[in-house]
Amino acid sequence: PRGEARRWLAEVEAGDLAGRRPAELSGGQAQRVAVARALAADPALLLLDEPLAALDIHSAPMLRRLLKRVLAGRQAIIVTHDVLDALMLADRVAILEGGRIVEIGPTRQVLERPRSSFAAGLAGLNFVPGTLTAAGVRTSQGLEVYGHLEDAGQVRAAGRPGVAVFPPSAVSVFVTDAHGSPRNSFAVAITDLEPHGDQIRVRAGGMAADITPAASADLGLVPGMTVHFVVKSAEVSVYEA
């Protein structure tokens, strides 16, 4: 019914677009109208493919809040590359790599304890696979990564495949080796420096660190430069792969 269509257009803040033709809509406007059209049909199963793509910084949070509210109690399948969408909108998540499901389970569990580098990349986490030791993980190259064991019986699992996971925000960057409380210090060569919100993401040695632009400038960071990534063992989660 026309009234239902107008109600959902208003919900996505597109009520003023009701009289426009599709060709007259911007990408973001068309995206909001498409979501309104899908919700107005009240389907038994809702399929949403990147529903927040092409939206500006005002529209995306608004639509995310709306979807969180209206999807409660509904069945929906959502395709997204945004970890925030997954955390806010889904109770279960499946990670697809190369067209195959590589991880599936409760959303928070999969994203906080990924078991593949692909899932860790989506979750924005550093991921170091190796063999479990009594104190952490040893990589195939002999690198020791110290961390806190997530599972009580994990000490008995020493020698089995395991992973060490930690966020880029937990990593400090030094131009010389650091001394003191941190137990993990990795000498790495910078491959990329890129904006990441209000931080600079430093990529090196298959890992990433988030630092302030001022810190990056003070350290004189440039690609190709060798630095030390330092992370306290308390910030590193270790568990069986």
Automatic annotation (TrEMBL):
Q: Spell out the molecular function terms from Gene Ontology.
A: ATP binding; ATP hydrolysis activity
Instruction: Name the InterPro entries on file.
Output: ABC_SmlMolc_Importer (IPR050093), ABC_transporter-like_ATP-bd (IPR003439), Mo/tungstate-bd_C_term_dom (IPR008995), Mop_domain (IPR004606), P-loop_NTPase (IPR027417), Transp-assoc_OB_typ1 (IPR005116)
A biological process (GO) of this protein is: molybdate ion transport
The UniProt keywords, alphabetically, are: Molybdenum, Transport
Q: Where is the Mop domain?
A: 179-240
- Source species, domain of life: Bacteria
What protein name does the entry list? ABC transporter-like protein
- Could you tell me which species this protein originates from? Arthrobacter nitrophenolicus
